[in-house]
Amino acid sequence: MVRTVANQASPLKKLDAAVIAARPTRRYRAAAFQAYVFFALVGFVVLAVVARTVPYFSIDLTVSRVVQSLHGPVLDPVMFAISWIGFWPQSLVIGLLPIVLLFATGLRWEAVVTLFAASSAGVATLVKLAVQRPRPSIDLVDVIRELSTSTFPSGHVLTFTSLCGFLAFLAYTLLKPSRSRTGLLITCSVLIVLMGLSRIYQGHHWFSDVMGAYLLATLWLAISIWAYRWGKPRFFVHQPVAPDAPETGTT
Question: Which of 92, 93, 173, 202 gives 20 to 30 Å between its CA and that of 83?
Answer without folding.
Answer: 173
